[in-house]
Design a protein that fits this description.
This protein has 346 residues and is of the alpha/beta class. The protein is 50% helix and 11% strand.
Length: 346
């Protein structure tokens, strides 16, 4: 019974006991502290909800330690996922004291070799599986690169949050009030809800119910709820799709700006909700095109240059879930064809 109670309502400190984020965790903290007061810090993020939350959290952490920080997120349609060499070169030309990559970078060997050659220190906070080698010269805080099993269930925002908490980068009271971002990212990325992630989610939702984030509070109200009503269903069905919609149909900066707060929040929140409605409409149109062409029990492999590539993952997931068949959908993204693949469990 004690184990069952601990699983249903685990203590945060107990859940983090023995958590190992990988061999670079302490070195990354030492580098971070050695650069306090730096004026040219860049956060490089990703365009989904986990990426937006990780970018927002990294910006808030950076602005506690450094004098200035700015962020960059690539466009899904024209640039695609990951750290891009041309962007690193542009950052190097502008001057950079520290490059912080979140929810990306573990496999971007060539791009981050450019950063090393330019003398830019790099810290990565990621949760994607590494390739045969890690980026040269970068401090990779990724539990899949030598961390513990429980740590490997964390989303990217969770990795960054757990690192800042364990390494004492900021006071615990400060970092724990940011658990609203970690809860959103944890549920958005569908990571396993073991003891640690269950603890993070439950406490993060409690933090969200009393959040001081004006943009997040306004978004909750815009979708028809009060912050104190927020639960897992409201997050998964209403809030997270809006945060994801910015990167799918526009630029993810919109979601980050809403999470961080700032000028023009009312208009930005309404734009997020509008983009999500547009995403739903486009997804339904694509489904209506695909369903009549499907053969019972056969895999679905289709493409159309007119389809917005950012909408395809949701469409593929729905078909795979409802029909139990593998689905591959593709469209044009810049000068590349990009796609999404979903297969049934097993």
């Amino acid at each position: 019974p004690r184990e069952a109670r601990a699983q249903l309502d685990p203590g945060l400190d107990d859940s983090m006991a023995g958590l190992d984020l990988g061999p670079s965790s302490t070195a990354a903290a030492d580098l971070w502290r050695s650069l306090r007061g730096a004026e040219r810090v860049v956060v490089y993020g990703d365009y989904d909800a986990d990426g937006a939350c990780a970018t927002a959290l990294a910006m808030e952490l950076a602005l506690v330690s450094f004098r200035q920080a700015r962020y960059f997120i690539p466009q899904r349609h024209s640039e695609g996922y990951g750290v891009h060499e041309k962007v690193v070169r542009a950052i190097a030309r502008s001057g950079c004291d520290l490059l912080i990559a979140v929810d990306c970078g573990t496999r971007d060997i060539e791009a981050l070799a450019v950063a090393k050659h330019a003398g830019i220190p790099v810290i990565l906070f990621d949760h994607h599986l590494p390739g045969e080698t890690l980026p040269p010269g970068a401090l990779v805080v990724n539990p899949h690169a030598g961390g513990s099993g429980e740590a490997q269930t964390l989303c990217a925002t969770g990795v960054l949050w757990a690192w800042a908490r364990r390494e004492g980068i900021v006071p615990r009271g400060w970092i724990d009030t940011r658990m609203d971002l970690v809860a959103i990212a944890t549920l958005a990325d569908h990571v396993p809800l073991g003891r640690l992630n269950r603890s993070i989610s439950s406490r993060g939702i409690e933090a969200l119910r009393r959040t001081e984030r004006r943009g997040l509070g306004a978004l909750v109200v815009e979708v028809g709820h009060r912050p104190e009503e927020v639960d897992e269903d409201i997050l998964v069905m209403k809030i997270i799709p809006c945060l994801n919609a910015a990167g799918r149909l526009g630029v993810a900066d919109l979601s980050v700006d809403v999470l961080l707060g700032g000028p023009g929040l009312g208009g930005k929140v309404r734009e997020l909700v509008s983009l999500n409605r547009k995403r739903q409409t486009l997804a339904m149109k694509i489904l209506e095109e695909i369903l009549p062409k499907m053969e019972e029990g056969s895999p679905v492999v289709m493409g159309d240059y007119a389809w917005p590539v950012g909408v395809l993952s949701g469409v593929a997931s729905r078909i795979c879930s409802e029909r139990g068949v593998p689905v591959a959908l593709a469209s044009l993204s810049g000068d590349h064809v990009r796609g999404t693949l979903r297969v049934p469990r097993g």
